[in-house]
Amino acid sequence: MAEILLVEDDTTFAAILENFLKKKGFGVTVKYSVKGGIEALKHGTFHLILLDYRLGDGVGLDVLDALRDRNQFIPSIIMTSFNDVRTAVRAIRQGVFDYITKPVNPDELLMVVNEALAEKTTENKRATARLNKETEVPEGTDFVEGTTSAAKKLHEYIALVAPTDMSVLIRGESGTGKEYVARSIHRMSKRADQPFVSIDCGTLSKELASSELFGHIKGSFTGALNDKTGQFVEASGGTLFLDEIGNLSYEVQVKLLRALQEKVIQPVGANKTISVDVRVIAATNEDLLGSGKFREDLYHRINEFEIIVPALRDRRGDFRQFVDFFVNKANEELGRSVTELSPEVQEIFDTYDWPGNLRELKNIIKRMVLLSPSTTAELAALPEEMVFAIRNQPADTQPVATADNPDLRLHSEIHERKLIMDVLQKAKYNKSKAAQMLNIDRKTLYNKMEKYGIE
């Protein structure tokens, strides 16, 4: 049975989630604060973390920062309001598996939870394969080449640089398909029959990054119970993809520069160096030199050839191809038969600016297909707040979750704010009485009032 840590400061919503997940066969531990979530991680073993983004004593990412500081990785899902999608996209850069918007749909939640757990199993299998010296086979891709001039230029560049051994820097917003580009370069290179090893630098702490990249010897630091082979060695002869390379610390950048210049690495705690033959492809969604945190000499070393992946909003000519591709893929995975979008859905898709790019489009379409019983995807299958945001309708026209109707689908931060204001008014702004009516303590009420800007 998979164990889930749920960190959510809304006690009513947490109870709804807990009951739902337990009915689906998961073990659930509930905490109501960042501090509580961090303490739970110290004393329990979890396969997945489900986090509210905004918590009374911080944000959900604080829990993940603490996890990284302990050199641990657990798949995590962020729950957030639709208005915070851009924040959720940034969270994915920090190692979050996925995000889900409130109001939460139970079927969508279950789908994302199962996908996160399946991904963890897949990662374990990959790690085992590497330990057994098996070559990692590139996965199928969630990408369409497209036919616009931007798409043609992108793939011309891939074909041009792939046969060389040049280091490549791939730049683009989160969710644009940078790893797909890296895999395509590897697949078309002379190293195609050798390993392709991908590392998300956003998930690595300073201590873990050195060990993960270069390896370590037993006893070199606390927790180093055995020798570890670094990913440079695992990728020997092939390609090492460093995603979000801007997250590496200055100290690790120094070691990486040496590895690229001298083609040798030194495991943490070792006295001897190891020769390596690796092609490095790096990716970033930021201006590395402009950030002031990235070494200029390393930048020029990894940027022998630059490829810029355009944002989805700049590829409107390819948009319909992407939609059709993801709809067909979701139909296959979910056993659905969606063949067309209603005019209303098409209108929303054409108007929305897709800050999460292809990743967000894929997630929205998968949710839409899951919630579409017929061959036509209707407006009701889209996130409610996405529709309201595009059509500029007042949020308070949405249905409200109450104690008498604790529907997981209807509970969102917008509704919660309105509920708190209504209860405060009924309690004549007696906060102790209002907290009692809401079944929360005064401190939690104060935190929520501050969170929602309630005077």
List the helices and strands and how they pair.
Blueprint: E1 3-7, H1 11-23, E2 27-31, H2 34-43, E3 48-52, E4 54-55, E5 58-59, H3 60-69, E6 76-81, H4 85-93, E7 98-102, H5 106-131, H6 149-161, E8 168-171, H7 178-187, E9 196-200, H8 206-214, E10 215-216, E11 228-229, H9 231-234, E12 239-243, H10 250-262, E13 264-265, E14 274-275, E15 279-284, H11 296-302, E16 305-308, H12 319-334, E17 340-341, H13 343-351, H14 357-370, E18 376-377, H15 384-391, H16 413-426, H17 431-438, H18 442-451
User: Biggest sheet, strands in spatial order?
Assistant: 2-1-3-6-7
Radius of gyration based on Cα positions: 24 Å
Termini, distance in Å? 44 Å
- The residue ranges in which pLDDT falls below 50 over 5 or more consecutive positions are 124-141, 393-412
Main beta-sheet annotation: 5 strands, parallel
Structural class per helix/strand content?
Answer: alpha/beta
Mean residue pLDDT? 82
Would you kindly provide a brief summary of this structure?
The protein has about 450 residues and is of the alpha/beta class. It has 18 helices and 18 strands. The strands form 6 sheets. It has a 5-stranded parallel beta sheet with strand order 2-1-3-6-7, sandwiched between helices. It has a 5-stranded parallel beta sheet with strand order 9-12-15-8-16. The protein has a two-stranded antiparallel sheet with strand order 4-5.
Task: Please characterize this protein's 3D structure.
By secondary structure, the protein is of the alpha/beta class. It contains 18 helices and 18 strands. It has helices at about 10-25, 35-45, 60-70, 85-95, 105-130, 150-160, 180-185, 205-215, 230-235, 250-260, 295-300, 320-335, 345-350, 355-370, 385-390, 415-425, 430-440, 440-450, and strands at about 5, 25-30, 50, 55, 60, 75-80, 100, 170, 195-200, 215, 230, 240-245, 265, 275, 280-285, 305-310, 340, 375. The protein has a five-stranded parallel β-sheet with strand order 2-1-3-6-7, sandwiched between helices. It has a five-stranded parallel β-sheet with strand order 9-12-15-8-16. Helix 2 packs parallel to helix 3 and helix 12 (about 320-335) crosses helix 14 (about 355-370). It is globular.
